[in-house]
Write a structure and sequence with these properties.
four-stranded antiparallel beta sheet, binds protoporphyrin IX containing FE, Cytochrome_P450_monoxygenase, oxidoreductase activity, acting on paired donors, with incorporation or reduction of molecular oxygen, Cyt_P450, Cyt_P450_sf, Cytochrome P450
């Protein structure tokens, strides 16, 4: 994930359409593509492969072996980033020192009031939505505002503007990177923000652990970037799925969020550099290679029906939208609460539908709005996702 879920680019980041049957885990050598052909001669990596798995020069298709390695081995696999001081980028001892305190700030008790602020902002913004809207815009505005509210305890226009400037094109483009000036604007807005929310918790935790002020700010900055685009993509897709599959009874917003994240995990890949030779079961992966866990393929394997939206489904297979292992997302509760609150607030006073019939459910049971989506490291919506929001004339009828 690097500095945030999406900010940094790596050589393997070639955009590809979502392919439900594509390989589940990729092992990507760090050398340039020009050398790949030569390497194809020594393509066999001795792994205990599950039935149906395949191996090529630069790909390993064995979700279970790779998953185990990600889950257990933090020392052998790193994100190999050292340029920023935040949790998302540091490795080894530096990561071990920061992880508990950032996880506590983002996901533990201190986050409850921040979560309440974020949820209130999401609900409030959705209460104002009516008429024709682009679900991408809604996701972006609400996602940014509620992550900012969680971070500083209230709405903050300067910080929202600074984060939105980075992410405005992001729901349409899978490849992008914040410029230094955009990053500096987020830093300045964070420094000027009041001392509430997760930022206050981060400051406290970092100070108690003997870190400098900059570490708390860096973590706040990276968490804002990590959270805004992912919440935006989740809300955008959840709105479209619900529009295509209006609930028969009351909306179960949390189930809708879970099913949306299962079908469209906003973070596509978990890239790791092999620091010391890694044993993927029976075979080894050499130091310096990149191992890339592909969360999209993990979610879908070879099952074509897995793209069908069904919030009542009881199992989600290998889906892991929050990541795998010790570096998985510490803000799952916060994110789910924000998206669910936004959906509930809209559902309480309105219905919404896809403006274009062709975006709806196709003959294979999957939604057509999925077709133009692109994955690099994150999910992008290259075309608008138009919705029409209609005010309910009568309150939502109670469940029978
Ligand atoms: C729907 C929303 C979100 C999704 C799907 C999501 C997904 C993920 C995933 C897959 C990872 C693991 C990346 C890796 O292992 O390389 C991750 C890590 C992380 N996420 Fe999220 N995330 C979401 C929202 C947020 C929010 C709102 C925040 C903060 C406010 C956040 C903060 C972080 C941080 C700090 C890490 C790094 C953890 C570490 O390296 O130990 N995420 N997230």
């Amino acid at each position: 994930m690097g500095a945030c879920h999406s900010q940094e680019r790596e050589p393997w980041e070639t955009a590809h359409k979502t392919e439900p049957s594509c390989q589940a885990w990729r092992l990507v050598d760090r050398v340039a593509a020009a050398r790949t052909a030569r390497r194809a001669n020594r393509s066999t990596i001795p792994l205990p492969l599950a039935p149906g798995s395949q191996v090529s020069a630069h790909m390993v298709v064995c979700p279970h072996a790779a998953r185990e390695t990600f889950a257990e081995d933090c020392d052998a696999l790193s994100k190999s980033r050292g340029r920023c001081a935040a949790l998302t980028a540091v490795n080894g001892d530096a990561w071990r020192a920061q992880r508990p305190l950032v996880a506590k700030a983002l996901g533990g008790a201190p986050s409850r009031t921040s979560r309440a602020a974020a949820v209130a902002v999401a609900a409030d913004m959705m209460a104002q939505l009516r008429g024709p809207v682009d679900a991408r815009e809604v996701g972006l505005r609400v996602g940014t505002a509620c992550v900012v509210a969680a971070m500083v305890g209230c709405r903050d226009a300067a910080l929202e503007g600074a984060v939105a400037a980075i992410f405005a094109p992001s729901l349409a483009r899978a490849h992008y990177r914040a410029t230094p000036a955009e990053g500096a604007r987020v830093d300045a807005a964070l420094r000027a923000a009041g001392d509430g929310g997760l930022l206050a918790a981060l400051r406290q935790e970092c100070a108690a652990a003997g870190f400098e002020e900059g570490v708390a700010l860096d973590n706040a900055h990276r968490a804002l970037l990590a959270g805004a685009q992912t919440i935006a993509a989740t809300l955008c897709s959840a709105l479209a799925f619900i529009a295509a599959h209006p609930p028969q009874k009351s909306l179960d917003a949390r189930a809708a969020v879970r099913e949306t994240l299962r079908i469209l995990p906003p973070v596509a890949t978990l890239p790791r550099r092999v620091e010391t030779r890694v044993d993927l079961g029976g075979g080894g992966v050499a130091r310096g290679a990149w191992v890339v866990g592909d969360l999209v393929a993990c979610a879908h394997g070879g099952d074509a029906a897995s793209l069908r939206y069904d919030p009542a489904r009881s199992a989600d297979g290998d889906a892991a939208p929050w990541g795998v292992g010790p570096r998985s997302c510490p803000a799952g509760q916060l994110s789910t609460a924000c998206v669910a609150a936004a959906l509930e607030a809209l559902d309480a006073r309105a219905t919404w539908r896809l403006a274009r019939k062709r975006d709806g459910v196709g003959p294979d049971g999957s939604c057509r709005f999925l077709e133009p989506l692109v994955y690099a490291r994150t999910l992008a919506f290259p075309r608008p996702v138009p919705l029409v929001v209609d005010e309910r004339r009568l309150p939502r009828p109670p469940d029978m």
